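TICKET: design request
STATUS: open
ATTACHED STRUCTURE:
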């Protein structure tokens, strides 16, 4: 009414109200009345935005690849952006120009410049494998870009989703990779078989070592048993020798004892002989007739007749003849028989 309008912005817009070329209001999420003929409003979105990109680049070995990714950015200095681009809106909040689209174009140009620079330093295989390196390089270079800094924009992240070759090269790489994988699979099978053979050899060797160890233990046991048997036999031999020595010693002692007994008996016999000789010595010089006469029992008639016959026998060469009557003999014999 009469040129006065009311406008309202949300909290994700930084609003600047110019009146007669001077800043009258500035801030986020403002709402106010303004006089349209002398006022202009700038609305700068400050929320983060994602920018998708797809570029075709050439590697160091002249192979074409496609770089695909996403850049996330946000406005951190709205005044700088307002000085570079026109974000003026009408009474309904619609932009009068399309300068807001130029932000994405300028960021996209910086991203393409950075990606081209890093891809051209790599060959095809390196570019396909080193996505993280490509991502880091693009992020650092775009973040430090003068064009981006001049706009008051901050690059919050860069994500490289993929680097892909053209279809023909992709098929060739797939075939080569397939062959390589097949070789690796064959190598893995070979290594697995070789490992199995090696493990079997190790097991056999372990079994042989175990058998050798068992044989050695058995040998040691046998040797120990032989040593024990030898010691036992030696002990038995020593025991027998001790028994023999003891028997010899006993026999020697017995021999000494017998010799001593014989010696004692001999001495005893000598003593008896001496006593007997000494007792008979007085009778040695006597005549037997005298001895008969001194017999304590005396001499009877029969003894005298026997002595007479003895003397006759001794002097038989001096006797011419002798007559002995039968009566005398019978009397003598009869007397003895009686």
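STATUS: resolved
RESOLUTION: sequence designed for all positions
ATTACHED SEQUENCE:
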């Amino acid at each position: 009414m009469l040129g006065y309008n009311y406008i309202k912005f949300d909290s994700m817009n930084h609003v600047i109200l110019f009146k007669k070329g001077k800043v009258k209001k500035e801030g986020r999420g403002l709402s106010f009345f303004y006089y349209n003929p002398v006022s202009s409003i700038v609305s700068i979105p400050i929320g983060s935005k994602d920018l998708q990109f797809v570029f075709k680049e050439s590697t160091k070995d002249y192979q074409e690849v496609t770089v695909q990714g996403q850049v996330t950015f946000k406005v951190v200095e709205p005044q700088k952006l307002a000085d570079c681009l026109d974000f003026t809106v009408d009474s309904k909040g619609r932009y009068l120009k399309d300068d807001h689209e130029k932000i994405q174009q300028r960021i996209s140009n910086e991203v393409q410049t950075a990606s081209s620079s890093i891809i051209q330093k790599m060959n095809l295989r390196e570019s396909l494998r080193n996505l993280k390196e490509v991502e880091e390089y693009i992020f650092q270079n775009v973040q430090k870009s003068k064009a981006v800094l001049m706009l008051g924009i901050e690059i919050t992240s860069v994500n490289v989703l993929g680097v892909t070759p053209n279809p023909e090269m992709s098929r060739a790489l797939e075939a080569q990779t397939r062959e390589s994988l097949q070789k690796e699979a064959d190598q893995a099978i070979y290594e697995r078989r070789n490992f199995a053979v090696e493990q079997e050899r190790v097991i056999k060797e372990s079994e042989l070592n175990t058998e050798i160890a068992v044989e050695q233990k058995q040998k040691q046991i046998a040797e120990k048993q032989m040593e024990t048997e030898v010691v036992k036999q030696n002990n038995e031999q020593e025991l027998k020798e001790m028994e023999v020595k003891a028997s010899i010693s006993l026999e020697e002692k017995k021999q000494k004892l017998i010799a001593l007994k014989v010696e004692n008996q001999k001495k005893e016999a000598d003593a008896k002989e001496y006593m007997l000789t000494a007792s008979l010595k007085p009778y040695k010089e006597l005549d037997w007739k005298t001895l008969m006469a001194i017999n304590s029992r005396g001499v009877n008639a029969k003894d005298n007749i026997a002595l007479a016959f003895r003397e006759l026998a001794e002097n038989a060469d001096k006797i011419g003849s002798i007559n002995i009557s039968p009566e005398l003999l019978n009397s003598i014999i009869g007397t003895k028989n009686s």
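CLOSING REMARK: The longest strand covers residues 153-165. The CA atoms of residues 251 and 257 lie 9 Å apart.
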